[in-house]
Amino acid sequence: MRISSTIRRAAQVNGNGLATDYLDRQQTWSEFASRIARLAGGLRGIGLAPGDRIAMLALNSDRYLEYFFAVPWAGGVFVPINTRLAPPEILYWLNDSGATTLLIDDNFAPLLPKLQGQMDTVKTIVHVGDGAAPEGMLSFEGLIDGVEEMPPIDKGGHELAGLFYTGGTTGRSKGVMLSHRNLLLNAIQFAGVAGFRADTNYLHAAPMFHLANGAATFCIASMAGTSTIITAFEPIATLEAMQNKRVSLVLLVPTMVNMVVNHPEAGNYDLSSLQDVLYGASPMPEAVINKAMEVIPNAGFHQAYGQTEAGPVLTMLGPERHVTDGPLAGKMKSAGQAIPGVEVCIVDEDDNEMPPDTVGEICGRGENVMLGYWNQTEMSAETLRNGWLHTGDGGRMDEDGFVYVVDRVKDMIISGGENVYSAEVENAIYQHPGVAECAVIGIPHEKWGEQVHAIVRLKEGEAVDEGQIIGHCHEVIANYKCPRSVEFHPEPLPLSGAGKILKTELRKPYWEGEEKQVH
Amino acid sequence: MRISSTIRRAAQVNGNGLATDYLDRQQTWSEFASRIARLAGGLRGIGLAPGDRIAMLALNSDRYLEYFFAVPWAGGVFVPINTRLAPPEILYWLNDSGATTLLIDDNFAPLLPKLQGQMDTVKTIVHVGDGAAPEGMLSFEGLIDGVEEMPPIDKGGHELAGLFYTGGTTGRSKGVMLSHRNLLLNAIQFAGVAGFRADTNYLHAAPMFHLANGAATFCIASMAGTSTIITAFEPIATLEAMQNKRVSLVLLVPTMVNMVVNHPEAGNYDLSSLQDVLYGASPMPEAVINKAMEVIPNAGFHQAYGQTEAGPVLTMLGPERHVTDGPLAGKMKSAGQAIPGVEVCIVDEDDNEMPPDTVGEICGRGENVMLGYWNQTEMSAETLRNGWLHTGDGGRMDEDGFVYVVDRVKDMIISGGENVYSAEVENAIYQHPGVAECAVIGIPHEKWGEQVHAIVRLKEGEAVDEGQIIGHCHEVIANYKCPRSVEFHPEPLPLSGAGKILKTELRKPYWEGEEKQVH
Question: From B29's CA, which of A90, A181, B388, B511 has a CA 20 to 30 Å away?
């Protein structure tokens, strides 16, 4: 399996079909493949050698997709960079990966002065934009214009295709090494069950640097479908693109789904072209998924669960299980079952498989699982011990093979010796009609170790106090899980570049000078 | 990717679902997985060592599927044997593969006296049937009853899973080495586009030893669906199973489709449960596919093209292209386009890629392509040269990436220096309303090298003579392609075990003492 073969096949079977649609630019698969082959030639021309890491810091565009496909075509390794990082974090990713080239768009070029002089390995900076490149940078279009199409470099299978740095919301970022096979196999495993077809029009609304959208990028290329692109997620831009471009499939993280379906204008858009909505990458509050199914009633909802290290998809809950009545009901709180070609199990601390309905660590196996962490031999061996990817997520599996993610292990709160899963508490709080957004964290407590603390943003015009939130929780979850304190947050909660609520940020003021133990 | 993982996942996600339905026996995926794990233990108990080849000579049954999954579970290599072989051919397969164990059912046990004493490597014979095993044989059920489930042997990926000997209709049989990844990847690549889902009820009507049905075996296991089984193909048994078992998907080779849809009683069966019909493995006459779409109007038809060496699927023509009107019409004569994850191209004798619409050799690439031929290093290198599988099939590709198989290169007739593709002549003859079956071969001719010769079986009650057949051909194809002689065959034409017309048999009387040149 080779990324270049995927592109060649797509151009062969759908050469005249629309490959990308962004702003006022559209290109067929033949045109797209030609630009990719020329960009690969252009990158070789400026010195890319097989195995070189090529980083990109940019918002979504057709050029971002060209980068994803041209770099492995030329034998290189892509390193997409989280768009929310601060300069020191960007520098860490660039220097840790040893990137030789950085592609950067106009949104991020202003950061360059803060990077220059501290990039140990970057020799070339490419300006991803229109018009002449600023001084000291090469022009992206200049790497394509007048360049010959190059034949793809003979790399594929288990060879490294990309480094995806993990979230970076806690601890030190690690570069997840994904091979051609990891990415393409997971795309084919997932595409067939998630609704990707040759006639799919996929909306890139989630950020391209993140592997949630990256997975869809390889799915849509594997099926030779269409990529409709918006520069960045924003509810109205998403609704407009879905309506005006007749989008048939979209992947959104839960916070984005929330912002779209609860937007006051959501009802004014014609979303009838949507056949499938994928969501995942963090827990989805029940109230939000119910609202989404109400606003987009014709679409099939698919919840995907996984992580970058899994390339990324491990399990899926399909549309037939997004029901509250009938024999297939009762599984909506789960993240679904292992997708074809993937094995999932739950283990205890000694890697013994757990009986059904018992919480342990979720593990996955399959040729979609990463090669390891870049330059982190020990951590790779630990994470991949016994041939299984240890996700670090707590979960259980029921008798029918449905996986319930109880929490990121690092988001688990230990209070008075009891494990409290923040997602469960958040689900309870979301059921309160006045709540727009919430996050539950552990804060230091002298006696219990940690105390369950809720941060809540209310819907406009709602007036709810701490006692009401806590009282509501006591009605739906066990006492020990209920928040002891509630903080009201008037602004939207801080999000990571991937759209996850940044609990690290929320925890910071409470833990300064203290160390939260990661279990 | 491991075959054992596929079974474990299926039992996890659909443990209470029906796995197999054969005669009066039904078993859930949990029960099926348990029998497989115990049979694996039983095989180890009688001495199977990792890498050992285990042969099976039997008609279709649930036990055949248990064999397919238990052998790799135990670390062995399956060698399914063509049920139409004569004893010397069986001996060649057994001895060439070095099989240590032979599983044989009651249909073939009577052949044993003709094999015994000449099997160089077979030490153990297992009786696949009910009741006590005949003398000198072990009982299949005895390898399961009371045996502990064994954990699967840690083999997968590129490691050898099975040897499938090719057709054997021409030349010496060769053992195609297929790895776990070859089989499982091709199954996932194909299942997603061919209609296999978790709720699919697949009918095993084609013979299990052949990889056309074998592909469906791995597809249905990958999706954790149901296998409904009939012992052997026969039109009424197939119609009955499709109706009574509410079959949703079936794979048939074209001769079987012909026998089913043209059966006088076909109209008496309720075939409304059929959602997808797959056909392939040899050319499908237009008249037959048109009739099939008339008899089973609700099903989507999928033509698959490939060969054992490709694991086996390379291209597919989907239901949306099985139309004679509208913008998608006009491709029904093609074998479709490369399936996701597979590359296809057409090359000349020097491996240069051919321009569109030019006939050359069809080549394929992808991780579904075989490891090579068993003990045939030179032939493997030749067939897989430049990283591409050379299929030996002549074909062309149009501007839209649709592949047209003009002929097996070995079935091509060279007459007066012109290439005549027998499939094209057969298509012309099938358009004559009096024709039930036909085959076109080359027979020796002093002046032209070969002469185009047709063998025709007429429908009952029809009276058509040689001149009428030839005259009909002159109306639809070029003169040089028309048969010069027609032979009427009152009996059904001889079929291979896979249901292909045995042209080798038909050619024999003409070529005795002469050598047909294989191009």
Answer: A181
